[in-house]
Amino acid sequence: MPDQVIIEVRANEWKYRDKNNLHWNKHVPYTPDQIAEDAVACEKAGASIFHFHAREADGTESANPQLYADVVSKCKRQTNLVLMPTNLPTTGNIPDIKTFDDRVRPIRAIAGDPATRPHLGPIDLVTCNLGFFDSGSGSLLNRGKIYQNTIDDWQAFAQVYDTAEMKTVAFLWNVTSVGALARLVESGTIKPPVWCELVVARDGHWYGHPATTRGLDAFLDFFPKDSGWNWTVLASWTSLFTVAHAVLERGGNLSIGLGDYHYCEGDYEPTNAQLVERAVRVAAEVGRKPAAPAETRALLRLT
Question: Would the pTM of this model clear 0.90, i.e. be above it?
Answer without folding.
Answer: yes
